[in-house]
Amino acid sequence: QVHLVESGGGLVRPGGSLRLSCAASGLTFSRYDMSWYRQAPGKERELVARSGGSIGGSTILADSVKGRFTISRDNTKNTVYLQMNSLEPEDTAVYYCNAWQSVVLNYWGQGTQVTVSS
Description:
This protein is mainly β. The protein has strands spanning 3-7, 10-12, 18-25, 33-39, 46-51, 60-61, 69-74, 79-84, 93-100, 106-108, 112-116.
């Protein structure tokens, strides 16, 4: 059974930083594209960043976070990270970890809340 467990969310002031982690189990981690999505109240879920797996995916960052966020992964620890710097109130959302290899091999974490407020 696949599990994705996010951690690292919280309350931070504008301009601050947070690092989210997503620990995966029950899958061949290196083969999966690992992504972070976010969903703000009243808005659709959107892709924030993706780290391609060994099958041939690439790294993607949403335009809104380029220069501020970085995605990385440690295949030895089955963990993907999202380093978020220069946080803005508009970054407030629930952040979800996603593991994707195909339409049927597509998994989500439970989400972690990030709130940017003074």
